[in-house]
Amino acid sequence: MFLTSNTVRDNPAFFKAFMERGSRIENHTVSHNVNMTTQWGYQRQLDDIIGMQDFAAQQYGRKPALFRPPGGAYSTTMRQAAAAAGLKAIITWEAKANPAAWTTNTATPYGPATSS
After folding, report:
1. 36 and 43 Cβ atoms separated by less than 8 Å
2. pLDDT truncated to tens, each residue of the chain (116 aa)?
């Protein structure tokens, strides 16, 4: 599950039950600012990502390995920040509607986060 610490901070124990059933807590930032790639520089993005890394380690006993950017958008700067925060991959998804049914492509990895 990709969590943002700002939305779960009041009741982080709720998600411990999911972990007990095998789910992992992954990083979706502290703030969930969907415009962070265009509004924020490297350091602010890094701080937001690391903030969730630290929160997850404190509340759930492990730092996330996967990162889901808010809104799905990411940039080279964000890839570098994610790598510097110790994340291994950036995960995105998309959903498309058609008249007959929903189709969803989930967990499409866009390669490992790199610091170079």
Report:
1. no
2. 999 998 898 998 899 988 899 999 999 999 999 999 999 999 999 999 999 999 999 999 999 999 999 999 899 999 999 999 999 999 987 666 665 665 555 554 445 555 55
Residue 62 token pair = 């492990």
Query: Domain 2-112 belongs to what topology?
Result: TIM Barrel (3.20.20)
User: Any idea which residue has 């789910």 for tokens?
Assistant: 23
**DSSP classification of residue 67:** E
What is the total residue count of the chain? 116
Other Cβ atoms closer than 10 A to 5: 22
Nearest to 77 by CA among 49, 52, 109, 107: 49
Q: Are 37 and 82 in contact (CB under 8 A)?
A: no
81: enclosing H helix or E strand = helix 76-84
